[in-house]
Amino acid sequence: MKEGDFSKKKFLYMRRLSKRKSTALFSIIYVLLVTALFLLIQRYDDYKLKTNLTAFQEREMKSTVNNFILIIDYMRKDMIENLERDNIPYTEESIKEATLTFIRHVIHESAFANGAYIWINEVVNFEGGDNYGIRQVHGNLPETEGMLLSTSMQDAKGNLPYLEELVGIREKGELTYKYYFKEYHSDNVSEKISYAKLYEPYNWIVCTGTYLNSMYNPTGGISSQNKILFYSLFTALITISAILFSYIIILNFLNSRKLLKETEILKDEVEKDSLTGAGSRSFGNALLQEYMNTFTSMGKNYTIAILDIDNFKNFNDCYGHNVGDAVMKNLVSTIKEQLSKEDYIIRWGGDEFILVLNKTDSDIDSQMRGLVKKVNEQVIYTEAGEKLHYTISIGASHFNDKDKTITDTIKRIDDALYLAKRTKNTFYIIG
């Protein structure tokens, strides 16, 4: 081989080697650039996905809390409407406790997507500080219910989430915020996103929240091939959770209505005399004690009257107990027609009844006279078709400052009844 041919081949070899090196370097650079671009796109996709999921989660949390508040408010108003319709006495505190019991049961039995849960804090002092609030319900940590809260309490990184929550509620009535907290059944500390809104009637801050890493894994991201599947699965889980949650709410609501009706039926059985439909003696004792407490604390007075049927024993002895029962039923029915919604008739025992009238003015005389006259006009028929009339005597009085107990008031009214019974078919009022 000639030297020129060798040099030419060497030149061509070195040129091809150089080209291969350049191609390899270009390929490496190209791969690195494509990989870097892919990673940048992936990071950007991760960022956009995280942003979108966070926004989506915020909307879901707001929807969940708003719907939950609507359910709380509907149940509260429905209970009040039912109680007022049936003239059942109640207090706002009793309604609040019944609502809290129901809501606590629902929250404890519910499960939400992404490890989310609901809790309710009641604000006692909107200025904050120690013991500014009470943890009333917590879906994940029921053992903390009843715990007193402080705006100086810190999260796992030294932030003041309770202070931030209270300030946001105080200024706008709602807020979305983040803080760091230990994961459920774990020592891992994660960032948590929460939404809170005030339910004003009870100063309840209704909250829901979830850990960010439970809805998104920032280490690997989600490939573009799986995004549709992810969103579909995520939406399906939210939908299924919403359906299950709605089912639980409806089921518990129906059970609550059923329990309320059963309670009302039981209450009627306890508070009403089964024969005449008048109030029972136990109901009367409670009512008189309540009214006496009102008189003692506020000065509001009432007219209390005792009436019985003149010569009632003769009806039972001469015509049988069926006629005696018919007389008492007719008496209660007649008296009820003459009373207002604020007045009560109570069967005290035998043929003796107590009237509780929500007034003490000069019309009492004419009302007592009218009751005696109306009863005197009634007609009872025996099984043989015989017409019977009956009369009543009434003794009445009011609470006074010397009364220490209900017994003192009843004794004075009994004295008035005794004076009325001396002539029968009349009434006597002791001032």
Q: What is the topology?
A:
Blueprint: H1 3-85, H2 92-109, E1 117-123, E2 130-138, E3 148-150, H3 161-172, E4 174-182, E5 189-199, E6 204-211, H4 212-215, H5 224-271, H6 281-298, E7 303-309, H7 312-319, H8 321-338, E8 344-349, E9 352-357, H9 363-376, E10 380-381, E11 387-388, E12 392-398, H10 406-421, E13 427-429
Parallel strand pairs: 12-13
Antiparallel strand pairs: 1-2, 1-6, 2-3, 4-5, 5-6, 7-9, 7-12, 8-9, 10-11
Brief write-up:
This protein is an alpha+beta fold. The chain has helices at residues 3-85, 92-109, 161-172, 212-215, 224-271, 281-298, 312-319, 321-338, 363-376, 406-421, and strands at residues 117-123, 130-138, 148-150, 174-182, 189-199, 204-211, 303-309, 344-349, 352-357, 380-381, 387-388, 392-398, 427-429. β4 and β5 (189-199) form a beta hairpin.
Beta-strand residue percentage: 15-25%
> How many individual helices?
10
Main sheet: strands, sense, barrel: 6 strands, antiparallel
Oligomeric composition of the shown chains: single chain
Order of helices and strands: HHEEEHEEEHHHEHHEEHEEEHE
Rg over alpha carbons: 40 Å
Helix content: 55-70%
Mean pLDDT: 81
The helix/strand class is alpha+beta
N/C terminus separation: 148 Å
Number of strands: 13
Strand order of the largest sheet: 3-2-1-6-5-4
Shape, principal axes of CA atoms: elongated
Low-confidence stretches are: 1-10, 218-225
Description of the structure:
The chain has 431 residues and is an alpha+beta fold. Helix content is 55%, strand content 19%. The protein contains ten helices and 13 strands. The chain has helices at 3-85, 92-109, 161-172, 212-215, 224-271, 281-298, 312-319, 321-338, 363-376, 406-421, and strands at residues 117-123, 130-138, 148-150, 174-182, 189-199, 204-211, 303-309, 344-349, 352-357, 380-381, 387-388, 392-398, 427-429. The strands form three sheets. The protein has a six-stranded antiparallel beta sheet, sandwiched between helices. The chain has a five-stranded mixed beta sheet with strand order 8-9-7-12-13, sandwiched between helices.
